[in-house]
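**User:**
My hope is that you can spare some time for a protein that puzzles me. This is the protein in question:
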Amino acid sequence: MVATIDPVASKLVDTLARPSGNITGISTLAQDLNGKRLELLAEVVPRLRRVGILRDVESQNSLIQSKEYEAKARVLKIELQYLDVQGTNPDLESAVLAATKEHHDAIITITQTRTC
């Protein structure tokens, strides 16, 4: 297994300590850094109050990573708004226009690697 998503949250394995079954591999667990990314953004932009999260709603990875941002946003008292796109040719222009209309202080993107 090589996973760019959280293998526990995506239910690939029961736990990292004891994954069960016949599975071995690695996971980057990069989503664990999402809260820290938001915290660093808040330090760089001291008046940060509204952040747009650009994500692919068809991606389980995006939904899992969103939870990390939500937890830290509550602590930092930052309002998140999801700018949802989908498909291989997402409507990014509409998402950015929505963020502009809502006066977001920043936009964070959750990227997704697709396999064909």
Observations:
- The mean pLDDT is 81.
- DSSP finds three helices and five strands in the chain.
- The two ends are 18 Å apart (CA to CA).
